[in-house]
Amino acid sequence: MVAAEFDQEGELVGMDGNPLQGVSFGEAAKGVVAMARFAGARGWVPATSGNFSVRLDEERAALTATGANKAELDETGVIEAEIAGPKHPRASAEAPLHLMRYRAAPDIGAIAHVHGLAATVLSRRHETAGHIRLEGWELLKAFPGIDTHEAHLDIPIVPNDQDTDRLAALVEERLTAGGPFHGYLIAGHGLYVWGRTAAETIRHMEAFDFLLTAQMHEEGAR
Amino acid sequence: MVAAEFDQEGELVGMDGNPLQGVSFGEAAKGVVAMARFAGARGWVPATSGNFSVRLDEERAALTATGANKAELDETGVIEAEIAGPKHPRASAEAPLHLMRYRAAPDIGAIAHVHGLAATVLSRRHETAGHIRLEGWELLKAFPGIDTHEAHLDIPIVPNDQDTDRLAALVEERLTAGGPFHGYLIAGHGLYVWGRTAAETIRHMEAFDFLLTAQMHEEGAR
Amino acid sequence: MVAAEFDQEGELVGMDGNPLQGVSFGEAAKGVVAMARFAGARGWVPATSGNFSVRLDEERAALTATGANKAELDETGVIEAEIAGPKHPRASAEAPLHLMRYRAAPDIGAIAHVHGLAATVLSRRHETAGHIRLEGWELLKAFPGIDTHEAHLDIPIVPNDQDTDRLAALVEERLTAGGPFHGYLIAGHGLYVWGRTAAETIRHMEAFDFLLTAQMHEEGAR
Amino acid sequence: MVAAEFDQEGELVGMDGNPLQGVSFGEAAKGVVAMARFAGARGWVPATSGNFSVRLDEERAALTATGANKAELDETGVIEAEIAGPKHPRASAEAPLHLMRYRAAPDIGAIAHVHGLAATVLSRRHETAGHIRLEGWELLKAFPGIDTHEAHLDIPIVPNDQDTDRLAALVEERLTAGGPFHGYLIAGHGLYVWGRTAAETIRHMEAFDFLLTAQMHEEGAR
């Protein structure tokens, strides 16, 4: 039986371009702004943290510039970065964590990095285990390929590292084993999450935050 | 002594039609949108989850279409479904959980399905017991037939099941024993709640969320 | 040393009338609406619960009518009640809990009844003790007569009772011993709080909610 | 590697003046209002608590007047105070805690005092230890001089004291040992936090609140 509760009839304007067919920078930037403001309204990007991107095509992505306040982002805080090229002068230090994902997975159209409370707390609590397993929750069906609650989703946890090229390489190594994955945690730092479009990535952000918050309360009762 | 704190003088426009006398699709759709936005503003429908309906008459109900973002719902995301007829092409996979309730209980005029945090967490914690008993809270008086805090309200918990026809049959079986019930939980999934009108269903949603959140905090201190 | 952080230079328009000098029904109703909407925006009046009043003079008070949705209150949901007279036909069942306070304490100008989460949870946890002691918090200075954190404030807890005349008499009995009090809890029900004006009562609502929430977190860590 | 996630490209209008070069009272008051409303929207200044200031130059600062409702502050609630002069008639009782900081540290351009929940709860829990150590969190990089999560930040905790001249002297004594510090806690009272500008102080408020909330949840699970 197909679980249709999470099927989306249409995507938000500016967020439903198929990156494999190419979207304009303007359209992509709208998706970046929409993700950033969605996260900002929920307190997931404290103190200008977090960053967001939408792929234009195989070679380029729209990406939040370093230092922009994501809760109040507009398009002046979005840059066009080359996925495999030299570092953009306004690129965030975490840009490699976006760009290496786009190189590794051609079906990824948008990426969000957020600092939610439950993600941050649980990423430290389970760092030694190396992952958090979400299991048996109906909301797992928010992720493509999961059409029953009788499933589990592992979220890898990697140790934090200020060398983001090295960190990105470690992330890609972890993501080749098992999966499919829809996001991962950096210990004491936050969540990376992606989707085919900015609209899908917003749904995945929301689903991960809900599931991790429920998990945190479930663990707290032990 | 009659406890009048929860008596409602008038219902919201578009939400107080008596379904047994019949309401128009437009009026019913307004009630569906009002319930969906109320829930969306409180974070109870993450990642396009949740669904909502208002009965038109004995044979038809207005129902959220599959995949609509309930937090931003408008009437284009509402369909007219036959209560006992064939499945509407845009009906949600959970439509049977609405329609079988309307068949079983003629005094139900509106139904809401939401994914609140406390409902989701407690539905798993108490799944083996098969119910949660709310007892002694003043806010129990938000439900019809309860006019004192010296009462209890059992919320049945059923195991989750992706076969929603089978799940709906199990729910109806559970709801015939004991009661009256004003809602039930699906384990790890969320809450179903109903009322005579959309306005009453909103009050019941709010009361269940408050009571389950208080219950979660009370249990957490044990 | 006078602790001036909580001194208020001016009160909100429509809320600073001195009830001993008399205010008009229109002015009083504005204060009732302001208190109700303040509480509604914070989720303290779920499912149309809660009620609010402002004294006009020694004999009359403006009071929320039964059944009004306090989160969206306007002046049509406010009635003029006699403090010592017969029950107004639209008076809430909890009206005696307001009116007996006005009779007992001439310096009370406004009263709010809210269902906050921490108030509801702690009122049950400490029902047997008969009170909650708040001690050592700076925010205690929000209450008149307290100008140092080296103080304590006892909040009496009375058992819930659907006979609100009897409950009001018990409350007044409890409030004559010790004090001064600025509010009390009804077990499993909620908080009653008052002040000289509606503006002061709003500050007291906010202070009690903050202090009880902090207390709940402090106890939770034991 | 420089961690650029928290670098700010530009500061908010009216909040980026360099206090060592001097800013006008009007510009400084805008910064005070922006900090106060930011805190008010997050519930960090309950019951008119909290206070905020921006330095004009070596001798003067704009400061919230006593009793103003900070959540709804406008410039009429802001006074111009002499940093080393006699007490302004409308100055808050906590003015010395602002002014002595400006005297002691010429690079401080703005100061905020807020009553967040986690700050208040943890300030009491750790009062005996005399500090809270935040360690290993990525968001520590929100503070200047910290460019890796492999760092710790100690937040001193001083006992509360209604003699704010004496309290300010104790604070300065504590802040000369160790550091650099970006804020401190008063036990059972709240947080003082500062930055070079009002915009930076807002980021520091937000970072401290997030980190202390995460810390509270981490401790709660022990």
The average pLDDT value of chain A, as a whole number, equals 91
- Shape assignment of chain A: globular
Which secondary-structure class do the elements of chain A indicate? alpha+beta
State the distance separating the first and last CA atoms of chain A: 34 Å
Helix content of chain A: 25-40%
Q: What is the rounded Rg of chain A?
A: 16 Å
The number of helices of chain A is 5
Number of strands of chain A: 8
Gist of the model:
Four copies of one chain form a homotetramer. Chain A is α+β, with helices and mostly antiparallel strands and 222 residues long.
Describe, in plain words, how this protein is organized in 3D.
Four copies of one chain form a homotetramer. In chain A, β1 and β2 form a beta hairpin. The N terminus of chain A is likely disordered. Chain A has an eight-stranded mixed sheet with strand order 3-2-1-4-8-7-6-5, sandwiched between helices. Chain A is α+β, with helices and mostly antiparallel strands and 222 residues long. In chain A, 32% of the residues lie in helices and 19% in strands. The radius of gyration of chain A is 16 Å and the shape is globular. In chain A, α1 packs parallel to α5. Chains A and D meet through α3 and α5 of A and α5 of D.
Q: Topology of this protein?
A:
The structure is a homotetramer of 222-residue chains.
Chain A: H1 25-41, E1 51-55, E2 60-64, E3 78-82, H2 95-104, E4 110-114, H3 117-125, E5 131-135, E6 152-158, H4 164-176, E7 183-186, E8 190-195, H5 198-220
Parallel strand pairs in A: 6-7
Antiparallel strand pairs in A: 1-2, 1-4, 2-3, 4-8, 5-6, 7-8
Helix pairs in contact in A: 1-5, 2-4, 3-5
